[in-house]
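Weekly sync notes, structure subgroup
Attendees: PM, AL, DS (notes)

Item 1: joint prediction request from the bench team. They want all two components modeled as one assembly rather than separately. Inputs as received:
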Amino acid sequence: MKSRLVVTRSILCCILLLINSKVTEVHSQSSHIQLITHPSVDATTLDKDQIRRIFTMYQTNWADSQPIVVYVLGSQNTTHQFFSREVLGLFPYQLERIWNKLVYSGLGEAPIKVKTEQEMLEKIRQQPGSIGYVMSENVSTDINIIHLAME
Amino acid sequence: MRSVFLYLLVLFTLPVKAGDLKLHGFVAQGLIQAQDSNFVDDDGEASLKLTEIGINASYKINNQLRVAGQGVYLNGGNRYPEGLRVDYLFLEWQAVSNADWQLKMQLGRNKNYHWLYSSTRDVPHTRPSIILPQSLYFDAFRDVALGVDGLAIILNTQNELGDWDVNFSVGTSPISDEQTSNLLGGPASGELEHKKDYQFSVYWRPSQTQWQLGMSLLDADFGYQRGENDALFDGKETSQRIAFHMLYQGEHWEFASELLRERVILKNFIYPGFYSDSTSEGGYVQARYFLNPQFTFMTRVDIYDRDRRDRKGDNLVAMSQGLVPGYFGFMDQATLGVSWKLAKNLQLQTEYHRVKGTGRLAPYLAPDVVNNDQRYWDMWALQLMYWF
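Output from the run, pasted for the record:
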């Protein structure tokens, strides 16, 4: 009986450890996600509400009236999933629903999808007014990194 | 209005820069059977009349002006007229777009943005089910509820309370002969005209929550001019609708509910001097469970009473001297469904409906008591959909 209790306890401990390690992983990811823009974009700091309005396509122009070009990764991409939940505060399916409504009712346009973070970096480098996100640490100097303002 | 469309067509044919033009579309084919009812076909057999195809384009003329249009081919059997149509086609002027406000105006044929699923009700992969809850998304009334030829104003803002959407539209919809007989019944050979349509809606997403709450209003007038050998008479119809909308989106669960109350006033129509003023009530509660990115399960209960003072349809029986059964006074529907995402842009959806009553079956004014002779009936559907 005693040994069974020990086994149960150690299993519980393992599960707790696993959950804990997941949490730390999320935290370390959070510190690495980079919101990036083309150098033509003046903004250097954005708060979460504004980022959400940009990625849900409600705000389509920058303050200097330059059009915003939004790039995103696919719904199954883990970087996208992380960005969607942690930065925008939306589940990826909610974003899909918002974009579908825009595209198929004519209300607006959806962001442009790219396949990889490498492609994201290339597009952001080339397209004036563009915004996107990557998990990579080494973002080159010809791309702007946006500071996330804490609320 | 025709000249507006011509103008928009000209805009469409202007030389375009590749990056400014966006093209999307969808193709879906299904199999459907509504036994013991005329919902899809009069004979109630399994049918392939569940086809939805669409292609749309959006072209940015400049920072503030945009043209968008969608053409569709639909076949839903008796549910609505079959064929090609312009789903929407408008010129949009974005007056304001900044960090806190967005204000847009659309001139042309625009979509109904006022209910949860109204703006994409013909786009299969955006719907929770193949057949939408008939209390609100009454298929026989579909063409009129799709949107209007006129003006739509769309406002969006955010403040410390959350995100706000405010929509207003004014205009009318063209009503085809087939749609007329869908609404009024076979003997109607005259012209039904949509005289006016005002709609307003407001949606609120409280900040830091997964909720969205909304309210919408509709005020529409129709006029009827009798034709030759017409069983009906010149008449007027007024619809005034208030609806409440709710959506909760959690990680694995989504709950949606829409409730409506609609006042319908009929003048003349049936015989000169006829007058009827009744208020219908209905609504649904729907839950979806996202098992994983591939599988979604859906369940829903939808209820509708044609007259809140005659929920069992007793007056209907009395007024028709027994010709129209009482179950035409309501329609309650329980639905179970599954969606299976086979690939990135490919989905298979299936569902089963158990229905009590026939109050939302066309024609509306002169019920089809021959094909709808059952108080309880079933429906199932299966649809494969692709989009890009």
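Discussion: Confidence is low (pLDDT under 50) at residues 1-8 of chain B.
Action: AL to compare against the crosslinking data before next sync.
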